[in-house]
Specification:
Number of strands: 21
Largest sheet: 7 strands, mixed
CATH superfamily of the largest domain: Vaccinia Virus protein VP39
Distance between the termini: 39 Å
Structural class: alpha/beta
Number of domains: 3
Shape: globular
Bound molecules: zinc ion
Radius of gyration: 22 Å
Strand order of the largest sheet: 10-9-8-11-12-15-14
Strand content: 15-25%
Length: 379
């Protein structure tokens, strides 16, 4: 049977047979995965995706079963500011304020609710609302468990606003899920999707359980061709994420249209894989390594280091919540720059070249001043 593109159903697909060299991957909950997965690239809609096989689905479900309930470190969501007590989802809703005005009392669905980060932010943000959380099992934080109604069946239920926060990229059959969700939408209901941005987060390809690696164009094509209107895309709310807001289109689906993004093609993807392999090989030779930033790629590289050969691994991160994490494999504590002890090691920066905060700028300046440190900006 010929494989069809997960989004546009085209059979015009390129198989990547030479990407298997990178054996190890990482799961979205930062665990090492040694399973293989096959990649496909749709020539029609330019979507880079995993080949959905029985074993791939089984391996992903295994990852989800072992998702720690306390993934976000006893907090319901990742906190962005210590002073204001702002969570990421609070920031999201405030930034989308203009698009979230409703006159009447609304029914909100947090689809794939997890601990309930979106539900929690919605409780604070909306005045007249009833919030429903849907997931395979109820993992809602006890702080909101009584204020949000957990459901595991969506039949005959209608909502005015549906959130899919870090859910869409995990769907094995996105068309089916979204078409079903459409039946749960009232007329003029809104849908909000939050996913990793493949353009600004190229290392998304090493995340095993991300079924699709999405660009803005991929998302617009999908929702346009699935009967949604007034599509708005935001790439600047979070640096490495795309947020899409759209409305249910009640008129019949028009002729399919596609936007093209030629920046992501087979060669770009191939280069990204080679680059990750290159850094991994380089890092394996170091006796002492420091990572600046506890990103996905830092975690991936650390997970692949040989525990017996590598003498010292350190991680610096300015985000205090990140400092509470501990990378199990090496029992590494994450420290901030003031607690960091230099031992002439190379520092691998896992932050983007675009440095936003003044604290980061200042820290980097201090790092550079110390002559004993080699900096690698490329991570
Ligand atoms: Zn396609």
């Amino acid at each position: 049977m010929k494989f069809k593109c997960l989004h546009c159903k085209s059979e015009n697909i390129i198989y990547f047979n030479n990407l298997r060299n990178l054996k190890s991957k990482i799961s979205s909950n930062f665990k090492k995965v040694n399973k293989s997965s096959k990649f496909l690239f749709c020539k029609k809609c330019k979507l880079f995706q995993k080949k959905i096989t029985k074993s791939y689905i089984k391996n992903c479900i295994h990852i989800y079963k072992n998702y720690e309930k306390a993934f976000s470190f006893n907090e319901i969501d990742q906190k962005k500011s210590r002073k204001k007590n702002l969570f990421r989802s609070d920031i999201l809703l405030n930034k989308l304020k203009k698009h979230l005005k409703f006159k009447k009392k609304i029914k909100i669905l947090d689809y794939g609710s997890g601990k309930g980060a979106i539900s929690n932010a919605s409780l604070k943000f909306f005045k007249k609302k009833k919030i429903y959380a849907y997931d395979v099992e109820n993992n809602l934080d006890e702080k909101i468990n009584k204020k949000v109604l957990f459901i595991n069946n969506l039949e005959n239920k209608k909502f005015n606003l549906i959130f899919l926060s870090h859910v869409f990229e995990h769907l094995f059959d996105p068309t089916k899920v979204i078409q079903n969700l459409k039946k749960n939408m009232e007329d003029n209901a809104k849908l909000i999707i939050q996913v990793p941005n493949f353009k600004t987060s190229p290392y998304d390809i090493i995340v095993y359980d991300h079924v699709v690696h999405l660009t803005k164009e991929n998302l617009i094509n999908f929702f346009n061709n699935n009967g949604f209107k007034n599509i708005k895309v935001f790439e600047n709310i979070f640096e490495k994420e795309i947020i899409l807001v759209c409305e249910k289109n009640n008129s019949k689906i028009k002729k399919k249209k596609f936007l093209f993004n030629n920046k992501i093609n087979k060669n770009v993807i191939q280069k990204r894989f080679w680059y990750i392999e290159k850094i991994l090989n380089q890092i394996k030779r170091e006796k002492s390594i420091t990572f600046y930033g506890s990103s996905l790629l830092s975690n991936f590289l650390i997970l692949n280091l040989d525990k017996n050969k590598t003498k010292k691994v350190q991680i610096i991160d300015d985000n205090y919540l990140e400092q509470m994490k501990q990378i199990d494999r090496f029992k590494i504590k994450i420290c901030n720059l003031t607690r960091y002890k230099s031992n002439n090691d190379k520092i691998y920066l896992s932050i983007s070249k675009k440095i936003n905060s003044d604290i980061q700028k200042n820290n980097l300046y201090n790092l550079k001043k110390s002559k004993s440190i080699n900096l690698y900006y490329n991570l």
